[in-house]
């Protein structure tokens, strides 16, 4: 019988617990809501289950100050809102939702932290509809993989909670009905591109919903958005797309935020290194030349254009004639160098971020 390797997760990492508590404590004073029933549309008496927040803006601001004081972060003078006019089942309406930021160095378990935060918010307050929004398919697949490998760990740690996770599928209307109507914890992962244009399927009326749109189903649930790498979602078009989901609020996670919306927790690169959470790479003055058996990567340049960041790398590429030769490739976050070089030796190398700084 073959041995099966299982990953074991440490649920007691102090820096991760503090990042989780920073978000959970924002809702101090919120009673746990077991079911918040809503009517999906005035025409169809379909009863769904939505998130509900009883705290006022002033309550949230007071909690924000307590969290910022506890984490040594200067107090913000006000809550940071995103607002936009969006199409709803009742016509054009103004949507306004607060945003909170967690800054964590790459490699310190950011995805684990926000997934566990979701489960804590469900356990303590009954918040149960979450959408993880990602900027690319590659990051989406990484989130889905983390959800799979942590499932047993989370079920053990939280006494087998009822929760489901899945990638948004525009063709699967039953999935969206489940998201809106279920009274369990629902975690849906979506790319920004799946709902940020008027031509997206999610925005098109369908007879299967008596002329309503899939987007209206999502709006009825008042989801909490978890934004993974939100620095890629800062354009006005992206903000309007996020608002179109009618979120209760947004939680923003990255190592390289462009804007800090109500920062609640920060783990800097220096602090991560000081705690031994990441390793420092030193570049020595000795270089092995022309060894194509070892992956070779050199950063040549970084280009920023509007909201896009790209980098030019020198690598060893496999040519059509079967030879390996140094050449340049252009990459964006989420790109795998194996695809760019046609060489399996580069398979472990995925572009996590490009930081012009």
Report a brief summary of the structure.
Helix content is 27%, strand content 25%. With 357 residues, it is α/β, with parallel strands linked by helices.
Task: Walk me through what this model shows.
With 357 residues, this protein is α/β, with parallel strands linked by helices. The protein contains nine helices and 13 strands. The protein has helices at residues 14-24, 57-70, 110-125, 137-157, 173-181, 214-220, 236-243, 269-274, 337-341; strands at 37-39, 47-49, 81-88, 91-104, 129-134, 163-167, 185-191, 224-228, 249-254, 263-267, 297-305, 308-318, 324-331. Strands 3, 4, 5, 6, 7, 8, 9 and 10 form an eight-stranded mixed β-sheet that branches. It has a three-stranded antiparallel β-sheet with strand order 11-12-13. The protein has a two-stranded antiparallel ribbon with strand order 1-2. A hairpin with a 2-residue loop joins strand 11 and strand 12 (308-318). Helix 1 (14-24) crosses helix 3 (110-125) and helix 3 (110-125) packs across helix 4. The longest helix is centred in the middle third of the chain and has 21 residues, at 137-157. The protein starts with 13 loop residues before the first helix and ends in a 16-residue tail after the last helix.
Summarize the biggest pleated sheet: 8 strands, mixed
Give the mean pLDDT. 86
* Portion in helices: 25-40%
Gyration radius, in Å: 22 Å
Task: Report, as a whole number of angstroms, the end-to-end distance.
Answer: 51 Å
- Secondary-structure-derived class: alpha/beta
Total count of strands: 13
Tally of contiguous helical segments:
9
Task: Write the element-wise H/E pattern from the N-terminal end onward.
Answer: HEEHEEHEHEHEHEHEEHEEEH
Fraction of residues in β-strands = 25-35%
This entry's quaternary arrangement is single chain
Uncertain spans = 281-289
Shape: globular
